[in-house]
Amino acid sequence: MSDFPRWKYALVAIVLVLGIVYALPNAFLPVPAVQITANRNGTVDQALEQKVSDALKQQNIATTSIEVKGDHLLASFINGDVQRTAADVIKSALGDDFTVAFNLKSTVPGWLTAIGAKPMPLGLDLQGGVHFLMQVDQNDVIDKQETRHADDIRSLLREKNIRYESVTRNAVRGQGVSIVLKSAEDRTAATNAIAAEYPDLTVQDGPVTGDRFVLNAVVRPDKLRELSLNTIRQNLGTLRNRINVLGVSEPIIQQQGESRIVVELAGVQDTAEAKKLIGATATLEYRAGFGTPQQAIDAVRSGIIPPDARLYKNHEGQPYLLSKNVIVTGDQLADASSTFDQQSGSPAVSVTLNAAGAKKMLDFTTSNVGKPMGVVYVERVVDTKIVDGKEVRTPKITEEVINYATIQGVFGKNFQTTGLRSPKEASELALLLKGGSLAAPVDIVEERVIGASLGQDNIQKGFKAVMIGLALVLLAAAIYYKLFGLVADIALFFNLVILVAVMSAIGVTLTMPGVAGIVLTLGMAIDANVLICERIREELRNGSTPHASIRAGYEKAWSTILDANVTHLIAALALTTMGSGPIKGFGVTLLIGILTSMFTSVTVTHAITALIHGHRKLKTLSV
Amino acid sequence: MEIFNHNSNINFLGMRKFSIGIAILLMIASIGLIVGKGLNYGLDFTGGVALVVDYQQPVTTAEVQAALDKGGIEHSLVASLGGTREVSVRFQPTAAMMDEAGKVNLDKVASVATAALTAARPDATVKSRDYVGSQVGEELRGDGIIAALVVMLGIGVYLGIRFEWRFAVAAILTEFHDALITVGIFALVQREFDLTVLASVLAVIGYSINDKVVVFDRVRELFRSSRKAEPEEILNRSINSTLSRTIITSLFTGITMAALYFIGGPVVHNFAITMLIGILVGTLSSIFVASPILLWLGVSKQDLMPRTKENPELARRP
Fold this sequence. Notes:
heterodimer; A: 623 residues; alpha+beta; five-stranded antiparallel sheet; four-stranded antiparallel sheet; 16 helices; 20 strands; elongated; B: 318 residues; two-stranded parallel sheet; 6 strands; 65% helix
């Protein structure tokens, strides 16, 4: 007789097979590699591959493989030392058009990758990498906001024909804008106009001296808070986008407190490269065209640039003169997406401006139909170099005209920007524009590079601890509970396998606290079996038959196991959701471990027990 | 094999005045230690100073660590910076590194550290020195306390629903006892209290609740199944009949934590030792503390009978 249904056997078998398959990728260790990604001016193709391999051959650096993978090139090497020298060689061979970063190349067989099986990403403490703590400059946000409000109010008053003496930012940051009007009537009119147009502002009458009627406009505190939260959120998004370009697996980018961002890049050792990308900004500027093309060519030749103009070039080096005044900049952008131009079919970016930007664009285009307008792509990259042992940060600004065309008609909020070289470039620009510019500058306040050697040591010790801990518990269980102990041992082993499989499948980053969590889970997982075995022993002592004892043991222990594990689960859940850093890593492991152990120590052991004892008449049990 | 006499009938409840007395004494002592002596907060919480040290010849992190320990700079965090000749060192400044006003003087930090490092290896030079902020620590400390409170609250609510409010109260009180004493021991021995230790204190709470629930579950079962239900007798029988499981599980979990402690390396040292302390405290409180509290709260058979109120129709039937 067996009271273990067949579908449960099937379930156990399926879960065990899946567990083994999805845990398997962890057995394939990744090899050090160098990743080459194209910047705006480069393309990743066979020619690049040839160039890289030639450069490496010239320096007698052996590669294990070089291949184009999607949008990047990956060259792998035997060890970290070779990887480092190779990266230097590649960097000098390729120049500024490519980003060269350290990476690890997976050696997991294709069929495993195809079914979504991947190894657990390793945390900073296990793999080494860089850790940045960044401070977002919230003052800059307030400065920008107040300056913009001053501009907006000025144009609003002009538009409503309200006479004013001055509109200026108050000296103290956060105190808003001070507006001086000529009469009490004007002041009332201005108050109403501002209240109607800008609901985010609180307007208050200030002191009156002679014919100076002062009005103060301050951003509402809750709006200010919202603004600063949005700023940090936008910065987080931007950083995430940029770090994706680096190709780091599992980057940790999280907010800490109200104005700090933590970025941890496991596996990255080159801080300069990481910093360069993290600090970069890219935006578009729309400027009025200035003069004729011939004037631009003359300006280049003579070196004399008209005072109201600036000289730009496009990527082919063709010069353009554009007005010094900017019509609209990227931060007035509400949305951007890549598309194709309806008329020419060429790649384009569809841009949506915010209200203020739309108004400026409308005003400009209304009065300038038939005149040229230029779109400038501006990229700001902070290059960090070590000179004489000191860090020197030099911002490098690239400005390039990507579009120069005659304004055909009036437009405001929505329009297209053409002149992009490829659909890929269009989509990249759209991405950069949308989340691309940092809402406020970030300063790196703390920077740590954690060596991989420490990580290697940690991994070995952690692995050894898991194995010895596991072996000791297996041994103790087998001695204490004999056959039932052995069954529990098998389940415990599978618990480890399934735990690793689940962690790998959902991509939990393994950290040292995570390893500790695994070890703790192993110790605790056996608890369910201890409960079951003790119950069976009790039932036997009370005179039940072996089969009845097994059944009663599982049944009675189940409610205890459930209660004990659910309470434990609550604890793990709180750790996971509220903790950060090591606490979170540990909590996630514990959470998954409790769930998998409930399955293995109850269902799996029951299946095995039923297989062993189910169809036999029993006189005694080995428990 | 059996280690424990399954017919044991130790009168644990009989010594409740004694055991609870000790528990309260230990709790008071812990609070006293935490308030009076304070915890030796690690760099995660306090911040400190960070140095970058260059060596002319390759060096291992263990070597640097040993040199610092010898020079009186304890609990330093040493990490290699990419290569083998450059390391970063973080530690809390010692008294010798303060100026007259009691503020950290980075020049003194550098000179004290240089002295310690060059004593072991003359080729060491301190390249840069910096403060590591403590603000982060404070934010995280707040999170940790909130996490601990939410854990206790969540557990209480669950037990209140699944068992009865007295069990929730007893569990939370013992939880608190276990966590407090574990932290108290840290204050006593002045081991460094860092984020990993905080995580393990939270894990101790998880472990110890698991342990208590097993006993409580048996209490509920015995109340429901026995006709004559003297609370004290039921509680005693519950503890006795779960005694071997309580100890065996603690032993098994203790074994894995011991493996972690002895083999897992310095990074998990603190975690393992905290767990070991917590497992010991938690096991003892499962046996000696949790049930007496239940008794004092006046748990009785009626509280635990399956409720039939939800369906009055069903309750009226014979």
